[in-house]
Fold:
Amino acid sequence: MIKYTLKCSKDHRFDSWFQSAAAFEKLLDAGMVACSVCGVSEVEKAIMAPQVRTKRPAAPAQTEPAKQDSPLSEPASPAEQALGEMRKMVEETSEDVGENFVSEARAIHDGDAPERPIYGQAKIEEAKELAEEGIPVVPLPWGNKRTN
Structure:
């Protein structure tokens, strides 16, 4: 196992474990590594200090017990905190219809599907067409959520 400190294109930093360096590269090339704060998949390795093991056991660095439930990365600003809370609310109260967003939004608008809050992916041209047809759509300010 190898732990990397990663940085997204929005300058969020977070740590993640991978089976190997090759596994990290394979997941990165497949777009499967995403920022734990904002979800963007434009991620690269950040500069990090190596941890070298010696024969002597290291003295404990802290006197307080480590927090077991701490997140990988804390939001850097109140705006990021609010964005995270908004994302959580949308994901908890709406249905992710994925790549079927455009057809599902039309079906709901036409009365062919039950009315409910949905979110998913659409190309910008498709979103414009929905808006021109009077179907309310709003771009969400975060990328796809992928797991690594």
User: Anything to note?
Assistant: Residues 78-132 form one domain. The helical segments are 21-29, 78-93, 101-110, 124-132.
